[in-house]
Amino acid sequence: xxxxxxxxxxxxxCGQNRxxxxxxxxxxxxxxxxxxxxxxxxxxxxxxxxxxVEAMNExxxxxxGYTSKKIDMKxxxxxxVIIKLCEDxxxxxxxxxxxxxxxxxxxxxPLGSTPPTLEDxxxxxxxxxxxxxxxxxxxxxxxxTS
Length: 146
Fold this sequence. Notes:
Layout: E1 9-14, H1 20-31, E2 37-42, H2 50-57, H3 73-78, E3 81-84, H4 87-92, E4 101-104, H5 118-138
Parallel strand pairs: 1-2, 1-3, 3-4
Helix pairs in contact: 1-5, 2-5
C-alpha cells in the first residue's frame, strides 16, 4: 500500500508500449495485490508485438486483451511510481513532479534487432519480472512468489 492510505499507482512507460511496459504491467497484475492500480503507455504507441504475446503466454500470462496507449497526463500525475523502461522515455518524457517516485530501468528493446527474436524477448521478460518482484516487495505488495 502506498503512503497516506492512497492505493499504490504504478505507471510503466516506454517508447512504443508494444513490449516492455506491457510485460511490466502484466507482471504487476499477476504478482501484486489486486488493489494496485497499474497502467502502461508509450511515447509513440504501436500495436502489441506478437513475440511479446508469445513470450508471456509461455509463462501463463495472457496479453490478448491488452492494447497500446499513449501517455495520459492524468494517470501520470496521479501515479505513486513512474517507471521508465528505456532511455528514449527518460529524454522525452514529461518531468516527474516532486512526490512521485521516478525510476529508470533501461531495459534494452528486445524488438530492436532485425529480425527480433523470441529469445531476446524472453530475456527482457525475465529481467522485467525480477525488477517488478523487487518493486512490489518494497511496497509489501506481493500476492504470490511465482
